[in-house]
Amino acid sequence: MSLLDYSIVMIYIIGMVFVGLYFQRKASGNIDSYFLGNRNLPWWALGASGMSSNLDISGTMINTAFIFALGAAGFFIEIRGGVTLIMAFLMIFQGKWNRRALVMTLAEWMHFRFGKDKQGDTARLIAAFSIIIMTIAMITYFAIGSGKFIGEFLGIPAFWGLSSEFWAATLMIVLAMIYTVASGLYGVVWTDVFQGLLIFGTIIFICVLALISIDLPDTFQVSVPLRDGRFMALETTKEAWTSIWPTWTLDMPAESTYSIYNLFGIAILFYLIKVTLEGSGGTSQYMIQRFFASRSDRESGLLSLFWTFLLSFRWPFIAAIATLGIIFGAQQGVIQDPETVLPVVINQMVPIGIKGLLVAGLMAAAMSTFDSTVNAGAAYWVKDVYQTYINPNATSKQLIMHGRWSSIIIVILGLGFMLFIRNINEIWGWITSSLGAGLLIPTLARWYWWRMNGYGFSAGTVVGMLAAVLQRAFLPDIPEYYAFTIATVSSLIGMIIGTYLSEPTNEAVLMVFYKRTRPFGFWGPIKAKISQETMGRINQENRRDILSTFFAVPWQVVLFLTGMTVIFKRWDEFSWLLVLLIALSTGLYFSWFRHLSSEVKVE
């Protein structure tokens, strides 16, 4: 990069640190202000912050890799996580259900759902430690992508036997830690808003560049990674590469790591089932913290809608980068590693000055995801372990100090595990389809099955995550749907055994939970004790939410794909998608949006 580019990046870094430190005093009052912003942050700021947090470099690089290697069909692989399809469920009902608990963390929520006796305590501790483990895994994932990206531009050398990617990731993370540790969620949200403006500017520039100045050749080459670390060039056509209609099978070479997606139709169905289960159960990490911090059911819905709308610009950006990567390959030779398309395009095809803005914008994307993850992960140690079980009389100063130190320790562990992972897709696939799957069934059943208790949640979580670790150790290269099945079936068995070998949750606890949350599902014994008039209103709201979900899920997919067809200049596909988007938006308005202010009150 030029001196101008480096100057722009430095100004951005200094600005981020300044904004974060500015909010240090606000965040230092107590742990509610440190981890939830005193539940007084506006919905649009929480939504913009959520969008920034989802636009991580690692995810953008792996998503770009799939579009580059597979064309528009690569979008459907990232239904597993990169499309963030869980937002449809959070928007319609999961966001408001979580907000109604009035808790700080999912682990604290376990006391709300299972009570404060031994089963509730067990569930709370298991939830806290399992999510801390997931946080460490996510930091490893972010670090790998950040290291690859920043290493491309800053030229940091390898030393002490550690790679340049490791030191580049360390630099990025240390910078983000300064304001994350100092100012908690206040700093996270407002730096994310600032970073979101920068990210949005970079997205618009790249999309316009690809749209007005690039035309794909009729035939060209892409590249796919092989299991031995090499890469293979493959030829494709413009028509096939830009088609958004997925085929039932792919024809990846057997020696390619992407050959696990050859049964493409089955893979897509698997990802849709996985996302439906995951979305219906709600998320457990940094995303849910925005809903715990929201002020009302209405604002939970609005922040989700705004978040999803802003996030839709990510996929045209990814399509534009992949398109530019194809053009660069046609001129200079195909880019071998699909995971490096993003940094190569920016380094080779973006002019001086603009390059600095783009690098700063993508650093913003990496730092905003990282800061949210760390802040949310540290909350589980402080609120659910230290304050609840180690030092109940801790002062606010002690709690905030533990929040800061736990953030640092979690990051160090995440960086350490980076040394054992080969590429971004490897760690992302394991997180989404195996380790995360170990949490999936207990996280789902807690909302819909009155009989499930704290011991059932704990047993299901421990068995599921242990199965994921064993699968990683002994069967690391199996297809993701096999890994998912191993983790979820193990978790389901553990949950059922744990539930039926112990007593049900106290009925009074269940009654408080149901009256405040009002979920649908198997709650017959509890519903029977609520008046028919009240249950009529609850059932009406639940039916409306179920119907709205059938609009929201395809609406989000179509919204994201519509922007991609513009970049690909597939006006035939764009026309059909636009008509479908208008129809789904109309249905969503009448079934959901106009009812946002309605809330059933249960005495």
Order of helices and strands: HHHHHHHHHHEEHHHHHHHHHHHHHHHH
Net shape: globular
Number of strands: 2
Content of β-strand: under 5%
Kindly report the name of the CATH homologous superfamily of the domain at 16-68 and 126-230 and 287-421: Sodium/glucose cotransporter
Overall structural class, as computed from helix and strand content, comes to mainly alpha
Radius of gyration: 23 Å
Distance between the terminal alpha carbons, to the nearest Å?
63 Å
**Helical coverage, percent range:** over 70%
Average residue pLDDT: 84
Main β sheet profile: 2 strands, antiparallel
Quick structural gist:
With 603 residues, the chain is mostly helical.
Please give a handful of descriptors for the protein shown.
2 strands, Sodium/glucose cotransporter, 603 residues
SSE inventory with pairings:
Blueprint (H helix, E strand, L loop, with lengths): L2 H20 L1 H4 L3 H6 L6 H12 L2 H14 L3 H4 L8 H14 L6 H9 L3 H37 L9 H50 L5 E7 L5 E7 H5 L21 H18 L4 H7 L4 H15 L2 H19 L8 H9 L4 H37 L5 H22 L6 H12 L1 H12 L5 H21 L5 H21 L6 H11 L6 H4 L4 H37 L2 H21 L12
Helix pairs in contact: 1-10, 1-17, 4-10, 4-14, 4-17, 5-9, 5-15, 7-12, 7-14, 7-25, 8-9, 9-10, 9-16, 9-17, 9-18, 9-19, 9-21, 10-15, 10-17, 10-18, 12-20, 15-16, 15-25, 17-18, 19-22, 20-21, 20-22, 21-22, 25-26
Commentary on this structure:
This protein is mainly alpha-helical and 603 residues long. The protein has a domain at 16-68 and 126-230 and 287-421: Sodium/glucose cotransporter (Up-down Bundle). It is 73% helix and 2% strand. It has helices at residues 3-22, 24-27, 31-36, 43-54, 57-70, 74-77, 86-99, 106-114, 118-154, 164-213, 238-242, 264-281, 286-292, 297-311, 314-332, 341-349, 354-390, 396-417, 424-435, 437-448, 454-474, 480-500, 507-517, 524-527, 532-568, 571-591, and strands spanning 219-225, 231-237. A two-stranded antiparallel ribbon has the order 1-2. A hairpin with a 5-residue loop joins strand 1 and strand 2. Helix 7 packs antiparallel against helix 14 (297-311) and helix 9 crosses helix 18 (396-417). The mean pLDDT is 84.
